[in-house]
Amino acid sequence: MRKLAWAALGFAAAAALAEYILPTEGLPYLAAALVLLSACSLLIRKRSVRSRAALCLLAAAAGILAWQVRYRLRVAPAEAAVGQTVSARAIVTDYPERYDGYERVQVRLTQAEQPARKALLYLYEGSLPELSPGDEIQAEIRLTSALIRRGERSHTYTSQGIDILGYITPGSLSVTGRWAHSWIFFPQRLSQEVKGLCERLFPADAAPFVKALLTGDTVDLEKDVALYAAMRVAGVLHIVAVSGMHLFVLVAFLQLLLGKGRRSSLACLPAIWLFALMAGLRPSVVRAAVMQSIYLLAPTAGREADGATSLGAALLLLLGVNPMAVGSVGLQLSFACMAGLVWLLPSILAWMEKRLPMHRPVVAALAGNVACSLGATAFSIPLAALYFRQIPLLSPVANLLTLFVVEAIFGAGYAVCAVGALIPGLGGLLGQLLAWPVRWCRAVYRAVASIPFAGLYAGTVSSALWLAGLYALAALWILLRRRGRRLPLDVPVCAGAIGLCLVLIAAKLSIPDGEARLTVLDVDQGQCVVLADRDTAVVIDCGGAGLDNAGDRAANYLLSVGHTRADALILTHLHHDHANGVLTLLCRMKVDRLILPAGTDDADQLLDPILEMARERGVAVTFLSQEQTARIGGMTLDLLLPQGDGDNERGIVVHALAAGQSAFIMGDAGTEAEMSLLRARSVPDVDILVAGHHGSRTATGTLFLAAAKPETAVISVGYNTYGQPAEATLDRLALVCPTVLRTDREGDVTIPLGQGG
What we know:
Radius of gyration: 28 Å
Number of strands: 27
Distance between the termini: 64 Å
Strand content: 15-25%
CATH superfamily of the largest domain: Ribonuclease Z/Hydroxyacylglutathione hydrolase-like
Number of domains: 5
Largest sheet: 7 strands, mixed
CATH topology of the largest domain: Metallo-beta-lactamase, Chain A
Strand order of the largest sheet: 19-18-16-14-13-12-27
Shape: globular
């Protein structure tokens, strides 16, 4: 490994420790200790080891100090202003982004006698005016922390260089002028023009994909829930995270026009960095731009480009500007992918050359595609498992079938935009033609994602052991090769395949025959309950406010216990925190039946999209207008309809009987609904109570608890500003229930219901 790579490794490791683990107050002392250790490393006899150790330790000290300086100069002063409402002036630095329910815009705050701060401003009521980069604005802003998200330390904003967040008071924002140096935002304006051309020239089903591919803007792509979920499961979201592939195609296209040589290489550099600026200087594109620039410049200087050196240079550049960028998931995934390509791709290709007829162009192209996919995922899979709890097993297949098409779409997409800017009619015709390759990619991603176990849930012990064992075998194989002992590659490959089969079998057998389980998933402030035995699965509600989509959480859990379909999905009512993951769940899993309360108020505008998705997926829909009993597999579900004011009090309450035990799943039912149930019937004793309304003080009343006498109560709750669960509710439960569990403390709560009698 080259010296620059060692320096980058030390700098990044130290910055990561400062970001995730080390206390801020002790960082200067640790940096000093590392400098002393680097001096001590000079005593090491072996020269190569001595120089690497000293370089790594000095770089680590620099990384810690850089992180400390960033925190003291930018983040700490911003945190001191949190909680204030100020009349602030700012310069808009990018175009506003519009989401369902809110809008946001990135700015640089320019308050008098204070340093400029990079901020992200949100507006939840009303809409922002037509803003463009360079506009000077003034608004009443309530400042909030960029370090804390939903009550926990967050790395999302500070890794992007955002110092503080703010909420705009509706009606207070006004445009006061235009910044004198607004010309520096030309790349943003050019990117916005490309986005507009994509929307005008391409059909509605292709435009979001092309726009994301050309500019990295995935806002519209994420609104296509079915496609975005399929791309996530198929492991191909990296293709719209603007990176090396895009710059490779861009440079190849320019060199095709200009020819190869020193002059064309130099001419490519401005195009590379203009494209990087258009893509917002995301970590993945900066990494690719640096490496591509070094690759082009090395021959002009009479040097050979080195992958490890250029990768280290890119990492040092990114972290030198903002050491907190080490907390970016995108940065970690991008560098993990590239590290695999730099260190593993040559070995994979060499292994293939000995076994495949690589002299044939088709074989060479296919083998190269597979080799790149394997190399890129080798180091990124553990990160995907850690952050997304999912391992895309069929990612090489999806990449093999579409990567060459995506490369063509990228190159042709910019050509179509260039033609469309000059001759709109011809550009529109070309856009219609280019939409067909986009449709091919969409079809492949959906087909791959629909294959059972296309994505392996990484949240189980068996999957974690399999992954650890797989990497241990790979490390052993490499170690033996370096010591001159040849272990056939077939051995770790076959062992990994056998281990994967055992993981899938273990998932199917994880619930003993005849037993059922009730699981309340940790979806933050929301609810998603799964009733499952070996052959049957029922999901009750599917919504939450967590960083993970509740639909993904439910689908991953079902896969972890061997289910590739759900027999029924019951929605107690249509509020976001109980139903905003339904679309994703319907995309991820086959659902036989959807049950909703009739006449529900759709204030959150969820019903129409859910019904449309249900029709597309062939899901039978039932609107429950009167109480009924449903028998699904070995489960009996009494679907009750209490009466009261509002959707919370009129939602479905589920009384479930499975494997000899019973449970009440209350949804958001409050004491009014509970009294309605008590008046209408004799409420039976139950073993488990999933408490109503996340433990609100207006739910789980004394009379209902006295009638139901639950042995165990579970509260589905997360970070919230409503004071849930209320102390009064916890006190009432403590008088009746021996066991009270909470998802915000225990995580997923799974209760075996015993053997059926």
